């Protein structure tokens, strides 16, 4: 039952991310004629050239990329990708009928809001190991083997799509807005992804270090290292607890320390990367 709940939770979060992404496109970018990159951007170009719905062209183009996703990223990823592609196509088709004009009349504001929502949606999907298809698949493949930000990969690949918008709209302004959109989107993608991986390194000096260490191990299931130290002012030997936790676990750890020793000396610092069991794996 727990496994089923986790699977349901994963797909629910992916569906929510796709919803946010689709709103950003259909309510702001597409009606403002701003090409934000990716296959959705290609679909937007096709829409303004032929009138063909973005959702349908998006589905058709992604069909051939599914095979690549399954082969390289595995069947589990493939299932999530198929789910994401179909749901994105459905969302886009429905919402494009609802939002005939942008919710914000100012093109620049539409670009910022739409790109921000689009990037947030993609970032949410990435946190669950999914993809919205298209250039996202390329980003996820590279990120699997290299520690390269998915946002940076998307920025490079999608630049070509945005540049081609000039051939359709004959407008430098729209092309520039497209590059602004992709910059905002990739920045938000990275912010969302980094937010789920932020960690903290904590040092605790306390006479009750054994009780604190035991509770951290048993209640938080985190490894603890005891370091021998010496206070230079007092010349007394001290035992120092060092522990690495996720940022969202920091408050629980401080609660444990406070309950055991309110006079404990505690130092917290942010770390940019923690690799090993319970954290991230090194991608060579």
Using the CA coordinates, give the radius of gyration: 24 Å
Q: Give the number of DSSP strands.
A: 4
- Total of helices: 11
Strand order of the largest sheet: 2-3-1-4
Question: Could you give the order of the helices and strands?
Answer: HHHHHHHHHEHEEHE
What share of the residues lie within helices? Answer: 55-70%
Residues in β-strands, percent: 5-15%
Q: What is the count of structural domains?
A: 2
User: Could you tell me the mean pLDDT?
Assistant: 85
Rough outline = elongated
| Through-space gap between termini | 36 Å
Structural class: alpha+beta
List the helices and strands and how they pair.
Elements: H1 2-29, H2 38-50, H3 54-73, H4 75-98, H5 107-127, H6 135-145, H7 150-163, H8 165-169, H9 172-197, E1 199-205, H10 209-220, E2 224-230, E3 237-246, H11 250-260, E4 265-271
Antiparallel strand pairs: 1-3, 1-4, 2-3
Helix pairs in contact: 1-4, 1-5, 2-3, 2-7, 3-4, 3-6, 5-9, 6-7, 7-9, 10-11
């Amino acid at each position: 039952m727990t496994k089923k709940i986790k699977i349901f939770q994963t797909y629910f979060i992916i569906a929510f991310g796709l919803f946010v992404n689709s709103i950003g496109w259909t309510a702001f970018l597409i009606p403002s004629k701003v090409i934000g990159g990716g296959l959705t951007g290609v679909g937007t170009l096709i829409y303004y050239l032929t009138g063909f719905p973005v959702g349908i062209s998006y589905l058709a183009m992604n069909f051939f990329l599914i095979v690549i996703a399954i082969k390289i990223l595995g069947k589990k990823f493939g299932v999530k990708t198929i789910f994401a592609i179909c749901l994105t196509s459905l969302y886009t088709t429905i919402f494009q009928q609802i939002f005939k004009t942008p919710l914000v009349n100012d093109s620049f504001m539409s670009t910022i809001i739409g790109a921000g929502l689009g990037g947030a949606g993609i970032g949410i999907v990435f946190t669950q190991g999914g993809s919205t298809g298209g250039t996202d698949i390329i980003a996820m493949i590279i990120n699997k083997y290299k520690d390269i930000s998915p946002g940076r990969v998307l920025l490079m690949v999608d630049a070509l799509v945005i540049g081609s918008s000039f051939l359709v709209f004959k407008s430098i302004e729209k092309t520039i807005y497209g590059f602004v959109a992709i910059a905002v989107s990739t920045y938000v993608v990275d912010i969302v992804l980094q937010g789920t991986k932020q960690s903290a390194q904590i040092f605790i000096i306390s006479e009750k270090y054994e009780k604190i260490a035991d509770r951290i191990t048993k209640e938080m299931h985190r490894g603890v290292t005891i370091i021998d130290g010496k206070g230079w002012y007092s010349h007394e030997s001290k035992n120092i607890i060092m522990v690495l936790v996720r940022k969202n676990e920091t408050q629980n750890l401080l609660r444990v320390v406070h309950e055991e020793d309110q006079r404990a000396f505690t130092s917290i610092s942010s770390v940019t990367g923690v690799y090993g069991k319970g954290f991230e794996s090194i991608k060579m």
